[in-house]
Write a structure and sequence with these properties.
Layout (H helix, E strand, L loop, with lengths): L1 H14 L1 H16 L9 H4 L6 H34 L2 H7 L4 H34 L7 H28 L3 H18 L4 H4 L6 H4 L3 E4 L2 E4 L4 H24 L3
Antiparallel strand pairs: 1-2
Helix pairs in contact: 1-6, 2-4, 2-6, 4-6, 4-7, 4-8, 6-7, 6-11, 7-11
Length: 250
């Protein structure tokens, strides 16, 4: 598995995955903090009752829900499409790497890449808040928990898109599902949490640690039990689905 992951990183270099990810991380951070620099925003930056950090986290959650499904779909699709175009499945099989092991190697490589990317993305948003002039003390716990869950949800959907890209050669389908997922993720932010839990992409909203209570923005506690169940379900489904790939004819 270690050799397979290292090989995936070599493929990433050819696919220019890292520059693409850097651009998208900076773009998400910039969009999330854009409202801080608008006219009239300065009046609330130093008002503790306005909870500026919670408002910023809510803005970050909305932008992440809008962009993360597309980001993970593009990364997974590019990482998997190379096997279709270069007969990689057959070559890997002759080297002792079954399609299921190859998919797991791709997931592990993307997970290792997304880990620092998600952390840096959150730090950039926090840095933008400080640069904008927020002097209210930040509570690090909601930010850290949201960042960790955002990373895990991104990895979960990478697994989905890797399987889909491996199953269907037309990568427009995988990316198209990602775009549909972005719409559903944003829509899930506007509906009750009980309904969001029933939509896979709704977990970009379920993991939110900031929400509106009446007319105020405040920190909230997400349903961790449901989130854990979602991760267990995705892991089990990915394991079974990739095993089925080993029996598929190519």
């Amino acid at each position: 598995m270690t050799r397979g992951v290292l090989l995936e990183f070599r493929k990433m270099h050819r696919l220019r995955t890292l520059p693409l990810l850097i651009v998208l991380v900076v773009a998400v951070a910039a969009l999330s903090s854009a409202s801080l620099f608008s006219r009239g925003a300065h009046a609330t930056l130093n008002d503790s009752s306005a909870r500026p950090w919670a408002a910023l986290l809510l803005s970050y959650t909305m932008i992440a829900a809008m962009t993360s499904p597309i980001l993970t779909a593009v990364l997974a699709s590019r990482q998997t499409d190379i096997e279709h175009s270069g007969a990689g499945w057959t070559l890997s099989a002759t080297a002792g790497h079954s399609p299921s092991r190859l998919c797991w190697a791709k997931l592990a490589a993307l997970a290792l890449l997304l880990l620092p990317a998600t952390g840096v993305q959150s730090l950039l948003v926090l840095g933008a808040g400080t640069l904008a002039g927020i002097t209210v003390r930040v509570d690090p716990a909601p930010w850290a928990l949201y960042t960790a869950l955002l990373y895990l949800v991104n990895v979960a959907f990478c697994a989905l898109y890797i399987w889909l890209a491996a199953r269907v050669e037309n990568q427009l389908i995988s990316v198209g599902v990602g775009m549909l997922g972005a719409f559903l993720a944003v829509f899930a932010l506007l509906i009750p949490s009980e309904l969001s839990r029933l939509i896979p992409w709704g977990y970009y909203a379920v993991i939110s640690h900031a929400g509106q209570n009446g007319g105020e923005v405040t920190y909230v506690s997400p349903p961790y039990g449901w989130i854990l169940g979602f991760f267990v379900l995705v892991g089990s489904a990915f394991t079974l689905a990739t095993r089925h790939l080993d029996r598929a004819e190519r």
